[in-house]
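pinned: reference chain
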Amino acid sequence: HQYHGTTAGAQPDWEAEERGPAVFYTITLAAAASLTVTLTAEEEWDTYLYLLKGDCGALEEVASNDDYYGGGGWEEDWDVPTASQIAIGALEPGEYQVVVSGYDEEAFGGYFLRTAFGAKSECGDGVCDETFEDSYVCPADCTCGNEECEADEGETIETCPRDCVVCGDGVCTEDWESSWSCEEDCTCGNRECQPDRGETHDNCASDCPLCGDDVCERPLGENHDNCADDCPAPPANDTCASAVTITASGEQSVSGTTIGAVPDLSAMRGGDVYYTFTLGAEAAVTATVTSDPAWDTYLVLLKGSCDALETVVTNDDFDGFGSGKSRVAKVLAAGTYFLAVDGFGNDDFGPFDLAVVFGEAPVCGDGTCNEAFETWQTCLEDCPAPIVCGNYICQEGETAESCASDCPTCGNQLCESWLGESKASCGDDCPGAPTNNTCDKATVLALDGVAVNGTTIAATTEYKPRTRGPDVYYKFSLPADSPITLLMATDPAWDTYLFLLKGTCDGYEEVAYNDDSGGIGSGRSMISKETLAAGDYLVVVTGYKVSTVGPFTLTGSTVYTEPEDSGDEWDDEYDDEWDY
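pinned: its structure tokens
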């Protein structure tokens, strides 16, 4: 059975403090059965699925799932945040509730829900039902997968390769061994041509290039110097030092190519070529790369000098997959910048057109929503918000009773400052805002290693409205280049977030940020730099979610501290880069 619906406008219910808006479906089983429930987001939002037993008056959780891999282009051991699935082989008769929700309060939208019922799967019936059973859940029925090749159970390398493959037996078992998992048996595929092991272009083209085949196989070591027949000479602007200068005014257009370019920014990308411009004052910059015929372009905006480049923003597919377009749009401070035109993968390169538009930075409050640079989250005055419960804006038709996430309730002993509640509007709930609630009232932070106490309770949100929580400001100055560590800690723990900005309230740029230091749920955020340039700095203490607030301590020192492992495989180095 398939159902189509939406959680937009719904209220959080089951595990309401952690999850997003939720809707319910009821299942009544007259007899024992197996059940598979699959939830897929219609748009891109992080789904969460629960199966509960009982009626609404007495519910108990049977199972839950966040991210489920359902196929479709990603590596098999990666999870897909837009899908969730629960599969149970044996459910007893009774009433059950399926809860469709989001991972957090910001996750909601349209979805498809599929349910599949079948006969009860019995462990011990001699049949391994792979949908519900494996060697861990039911070893009586399923032996394959327990990492032990059991010949007495009929397991062989043909019937159960996952258990019976032996690295080092001289045979490369396809689909189960590779050059990455067992180089002793499998050499082809490691992108290193090994003639001493019998590899040639004929039997291992993935490792051994062939000069003269009209394909420049750069990842395999082919280049213009060793195979001019296949690899053209690099473009003149192949390096940062040879970047082509673009005049930073009006609309500028140039044509170029990455054919023959050598990967510089990343070995995972195609060859890159560089352009540079210098801004004398703040400006709104939009750069667009187009290719015809289309190839998978990748555009990187960087700042600084060639020997110390920092990534500002990147883009892969603008206008969707296969469009051959990439675009970056950013309001930039005065300074020197570089645009690197690249390919998404090693084999992505070709001719392109680059258009760069320089304009005045948009002014929030001028009555015009500049969609390239402004959204309702960043400038509600110009860009109207969608009318939906859950966006933290109490809109027409919403009340505290119908949408508590958007409309504050005076008298509930909770200062909902993120919804506009204050001491003036509700003195029963809200104390006065912290003295350093705004940038112009930032507290001086002594970098002496001594913790100072603070709070974001009753604060408003100035730095990242409708994106991060209420914030408070600190400031410090460095007379010379210096290492630095900023540590925010909480007890009891709440989900903190920390920003470091260079400059003053009249003008600044974001230098670094951090969410979880020492693991998710640690209630800590830390920014640590081996060298921070001399100058004036601002520290913004806030919460990960719009509604996250609490007391904290903040410690600053001119000593570098090795970053703590976040426990998050995606970002454990606190370098503001995804760790793929």
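why pinned: The longest strand covers residues 33-41. The first helix runs from residue 161 to 164.
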